[in-house]
Amino acid sequence: DIVELSLRSSISDDCLHLVYQPEVDMRSGVIVAVEALLRWEHPLLGLLMPESFIHVAESTNLATELGTWVIRSAFRQYAQWWSEIAGLDVVLRVNVSPGQLVGADFVDSIARELGEYGIDGGNVCLEITENAVVSDVDRTRRALRGLAGLGVQVAIDDFGSGYSSLAQLKQLQFDVLKIDREFIRDLGDSPADLAIVKSIVTLAKSFDLILVAEGVETEMAARTLLDLGCYRAQGFLLHRPLPADMVRDLLITNR
Ligand code: G
Ligand code: G
Ligand code: MN
Ligand code: NA
User: Fold this and answer.
1) Residue nearest to atom 15 of ligand 2 (CA)
2) Which bound ligand lies closest to the C-alpha atom of 215?
3) How far is the CA of 123 from the centre of ligand 1 (A)?
4) Domain extents for the chain?
5) ipTM
6) Which residues are in the EAL domain (predicted)?
7) Which residues pair with 212 in a beta bridge?
């Protein structure tokens, strides 16, 4: 497959980079986390978003290699911010693909990279799309336990969009729940979305999870979330995914 071949050679080149989208506590406006998001600058096709190539990595043996590149790059960037910004107090969120999480060496590799970059596990949160988690509950549970041992948090991403959201909440110990942007986009206009988000807020409280809304694009959505008690949010209304140096400037004045 041509995409696979192309991706394989791009992982070692300078074709990949990360952008970072801030997550804000809407009560204070302070940035509480940043999510690393992968971009591929293809020599012929231009800038590619993860949707167009992540599945290729996942269906081949490239998931681990790509995932390792992402983790090392994000950790290196975080370590740099840490050295540049006194009193830095934001969590680094990194997306992890299913194959990566249940890989034999995954938890050990995270421990190794934390050590290499001098990062406290408590400053890192790995995001797992709920669709991805289902395949192997036992191995996923073992991985989450190992990560908890390192102090690393785990988020269930795109919550509500998969077919076993509630089963996974029951079976697996997450730290953070990110509401899928599908339910946020029309929040304020849609009684159905309002009912769903309300019940997710209750769920998150019951399970003692940190709650984050994704895809906040309008003042209306933001206000509704605040009213419901969901304070943390990510979305174009607040910040777009940004290059690392722009995030640094934001983090410097983040107080
Ligand atoms: O950046 P963008 O909004 O286009 O991301 C689209 C999807 O790709 C999101 O669901 C996100 O979780 C996923 N994604 C972004 N970066 C990474 C990454 O580094 N690794 C994995 N596995 N998924 C990613
Ligand atoms: O699934 P995940 O949360 O990892 O996806 C993150 C993706 O969501 C990023 O690629 C980012 O570009 C996209 N995104 C972030 N904020 C918004 C938003 O407000 N609206 C929409 N439509 N997409 C967003
Ligand atoms: Mn994510
Ligand atoms: Na998501």
Assistant:
1) 235
2) 2
3) 20
4) 2-252
5) 0.94
6) 1-255
7) 178, 232
From first to last of its 255 residues, the chain has per-residue pLDDT tens of: 777 878 888 785 678 999 999 999 999 999 999 999 999 988 888 999 998 888 888 888 888 889 999 999 999 999 999 999 999 999 999 999 877 888 889 999 999 999 999 999 999 999 998 766 567 888 999 999 999 999 999 999 999 988 778 888 999 999 999 999 999 999 989 999 999 999 999 999 999 999 999 999 999 999 999 999 999 999 999 999 999 999 999 999 997
Cα(252) to ligand 3 centroid in Å equals 24
Within 6 A (CB) of ligand 1 lie 37-38, 49-51, 54, 70, 95-97, 157, 241
Q: Is the separation of the CB atoms in 32 and 23 below 8 Å?
A: yes
Buried b / exposed e along 37-59 (16+ C-beta atoms within 10 A): bbbbebeeeeebebeebbebbbe
Who surrounds ion ligand 4 at CB < 5 A? Answer: 157-158, 214
- From residue 240, give the alpha-carbon distance in Å to each of 29, 36, 46, 198, 216: 15, 12, 20, 25, 10
